[in-house]
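Hey,
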Amino acid sequence: MTPPADRPRPWHGVLVATALPLDDDLSVNYGRFAEHCAWLVENGCDGVVPNGSLGEYQVLTPEERTKVVETAVAAVGGRRVMPGVAAYGSAEARRWAEQAKDAGCASVMLLPPNAYRADERSVLAHYEEVAKAGIPIVAYNNPIDTKVDLVPELLAKLHAEGYVHAVKEFSGDVRRAYRIAELAPELDLLVGADDVLLELAVAGAKGWIAGYPNMLPAASVELYRAAVAGDLATAGKLYRQLHPLLRWDSKPEFVQAIKLSMDIAGRHGGPCRPPRVPLLPEQEQAVRTATERAVAAGLH
């Protein structure tokens, strides 16, 4: 599937994996979500990625998941929206991809099969099926959570078949950037974990599917732009300032941490749906301290 002509690679730049604002009764606050998407773009972000793991897609009803995509599109335009379309079954993932396409989105993000430890043949068949929806796919490699690793050799096969155009790389192994570039030079590498942003930007990343810009969009965009431009003086300073927060993106409690930081910074993060539980007191204090330091430093 060829990307849209007006935005040939809409996954370039800073795309925020959006946290989903919930009210105290755990219902989705779509008004706040629309405002949040617009605020992120106003602060320099290039787009949003709803219905990812940070958006708690696993605990949404189909109706909620559909409305989240429609709300984001209405707020910032479909070309800026790249929904997550992960599902246990390939047919269901394809239906979510079709829903995103019908809503006007320019691309989607797709995990490999994650109901079991899928082998290479199953991974290829999964992406082949979802690609039939006719919308460009960004693969999401998260072997920590899914136990399925899209290693560079497999990514090269997926790209050669035309199933994927880019990869959100969350393995944490920055060495893979160079192997991916050797095996599939036209496959775009996207930073998938906030705490390896600088390392992967230097290695040639074309985008960042980001978590902590939910709280600090302007500072995060400045960090990303400086990093990819090779301005290491600016990027290095910001990276050191933000890393106590960015590293939470790679922890199991990343949703709770980012939502707490949003609340502290005056944004509405709100609670999480079960089975996620609140942070432990020591975790909360660590997040609070790092967030307050960033705010005190004038970062936003």
